[in-house]
Amino acid sequence: MAYTLKSKIKDVWKNPVGHDVLAKILLQLNLPSILITNPLVSFLSLGQVKALSRGRLSEGFFESLIGLLSSVESPSTKQTEQSPNETWWKEAVFYQIYPRSFMDANGDGIGDLKGIIMKLDYLKTLGIDAIWLSPIYDSPNDDNGYDIRDYDKILEDFGTMEDFAALLEGVHRRGMKLIMDLVVNHTSDEHAWFQKALNDPSSPYRDYYFLQSAVGNTPPNNWTSFFSGSAWNLYEKQKLWGLHLFSKKQMDLNWENPDLREDVYAMIRRWLDRGVDGFRMDVINYISKQPGLPPGDETVGTMMGYCGIEHYFYGPKLHQYLREIREKAFAPYSAFSVGETPGIGMEMSKQLTGANRGELDMVFSFDHLETP
Prior knowledge:
Elements: H1 9-14, H2 16-29, H3 34-37, H4 39-42, H5 46-53, H6 59-70, E1 94-97, H7 99-102, H8 113-118, H9 120-125, E2 130-133, E3 137-138, E4 150-154, H10 161-173, E5 177-182, E6 186-188, H11 192-199, E7 211-213, E8 232-235, E9 240-243, E10 250-252, H12 258-274, E11 278-281, H13 298-304, H14 318-330, E12 336-339, H15 346-353, E13 362-363
Parallel strand pairs: 1-2, 2-5, 5-11, 11-12, 12-13
Antiparallel strand pairs: 3-4, 6-10, 7-9, 8-9
């Protein structure tokens, strides 16, 4: 259905995005859902709610909400009836390892891959079925390894690719599985792609990131970083602004670029060829940004704590990109996927994980942490 200011609250509540957005607003205001689901309110139109808000909810708020409502492929969250399929991850016990603090094999004060190998029998006795390994890739460690400098190299503190092969063999020999952390919303600013993008105007990698010409000292939009301050770096020498939703050294990748996507899929396949069983996908719902990167609505920004978030937490091509990842990388290997999807509620999660949708196997649910 088409959503406009004439749409009723009850219809918005039936929409997966609408339900979760309204639930989030109620949570922020510490109000019960009955305020929306009761007949008196549920039959109000969005236009009437706008008038009643007397300017507290801006024009931009309603434009953003209507845009998000319209992005849902089907207002129904019900999946096609099918028998539950048996698969290992539905019954598995997962154990996360942060390598730096887990086990130090060589006495240098830093946990490493050989240290993990030493503890595999212990993990097996605990009843662990799968290990989720926090990032071990080469990184400047500005954000605990989530700023990746080289996807195909192990950080020297942790060991070598040979050590990784030995770890994977040991995990599989004990009947367990190994899940890697997949960080593809951004790379380190020290990644070769970004260095080429920044320093060579003719480089094909320039379009791998969000780099915009700098005119004066005003950022391209008012988006804010999750690490505080503007989400834009100014590169004065190159006269460019660069987008980073997280740390100043974590530069967001432009998933609109098909070559970037193919490079990412190829990288994923290289790890799956090594025998990795699947991935935990870091802030994966942020990979699709609204074209043109429009300014964030100040009302939404104040309510959520981050300006601009409505333009990327459930972007227009998110479902397309997730299906591409599955089709071009995961499916041929029967690889497992679990998404970290901040801001996504329970109804939207069904849109991302339905068995017949071909996107993610699971997502982390943060709803139980976000209580009044």
